[in-house]
Amino acid sequence: LVHGLFGFNNFMGADYFYHIPSILKADGATVFVSTVSAANSTEVRGEQLLNQLLNFKAISGAAKFNLIGHSHGSPTARYVASVRPSLVASVTSVDGVNKGSRVADVVRHVAPAGSVSAAVASTVADAFVKMLSYATGSSNLSQNTLSALDSLTTAGSIKFNSKHPAGLPSGCGEGAAVVNGIRYYSWGGDRALTNVVDPLDAGIKLMSLAFGGDANDGLVSTCSQRLGHVIRVDYNMNHLDAVNQILGLTNILETNPKTLYRNHANRLKTAGL
């Protein structure tokens, strides 16, 4: 499992993928939760993930891994599949930023590179990330919020995708399901406000305005979420619901996010992965 921007393995007893590792393990899966930089470029995070996979391989003896990446975790996983395909059996994008996010575009427009506003925003964000990294025991990892932001813009994604295109659709359809022996999957949501009790939903709804009339999960358009075999990108879930956050306060009228991960683990098993 590969976390996204400002992500972590475990923070004050709470999983980033809230309760998802435990239910997968209870069903018999071997689960590793990666810890890469909370904020940095896709390439830096990808190299960190690659090193962790080599450690996981040494510990477990596993030949290959099924990588499931949420948000920025999707291109992070795709990077590893591209540069070290021998380690990867499949890549699954969950609400993944595969073609950039208009929210990142808007932020970059408000705080362009080299501006005072960018410097101030970077200082504040870097301070937050350092606090988060210390609290989660990952203070040894490099952090750079502006590099993360640049990676998540449309322009940054186009640059990344030119080097690592596997599984990407040319438009907003499906991409190649198998590339270089690696299977590619994706799913995601198309709602911003899903649970009025969730204190973060109002902010997600506000950010969704960046997309105009295009379907999105509050942070990523459904078009950008698509990769390889598209399971669905119209779940009634927002960007945080995809990882059962915040603390399981998701849409009670939609499939439980934990069920989606359990079903996907069974899908991977049936496929022989």
Descriptive overview:
Strands 3, 4, 5, 6 and 7 form a 5-stranded mixed β-sheet that branches. The radius of gyration is 17 Å and the shape is globular. It has helices spanning about 20-25, 40-60, 75-85, 100-110, 115-135, 145-150, 155-165, 200-205, 220-225, 255-270; strands at about 10, 15, 65-70, 90-95, 180, 180-190, 230-235. It is an alpha/beta fold and about 270 residues long.
Q: Could you provide a short overview of the structure?
A:
This protein is an alpha/beta fold and 273 residues long. The chain has ten helices and seven strands.
Low-confidence stretches: 123-132
Please trace the helix and strand order, writing H or E for each element.
EEHHEHEHHHHEEHHEH
**What's the overall average pLDDT, rounded?**
89
Query: Which value, in Å, is the CA radius of gyration?
Result: 17 Å
Helix content: 25-40%
Number of helices: 10
β-strand number: 7
Structural class: alpha/beta
Coarse morphology: globular
Instruction: Please state roughly what percent of the residues sit in beta strands, choosing from under 5%, 5-15%, 15-25%, 25-35%, 35-45% or over 45%.
Output: 5-15%
Could you give the topology of this structure?
Blueprint: E1 10-11, E2 14-15, H1 20-26, H2 42-60, E3 65-70, H3 73-83, E4 88-94, H4 102-110, H5 116-135, H6 145-152, H7 154-163, E5 178-179, E6 182-189, H8 201-207, H9 222-225, E7 229-235, H10 257-270
Parallel strand pairs: 3-4, 4-6, 6-7
Antiparallel strand pairs: 1-2, 5-6
Keywords:
10 helices, two-stranded antiparallel sheet, 273 residues, alpha/beta, 5-stranded mixed beta sheet
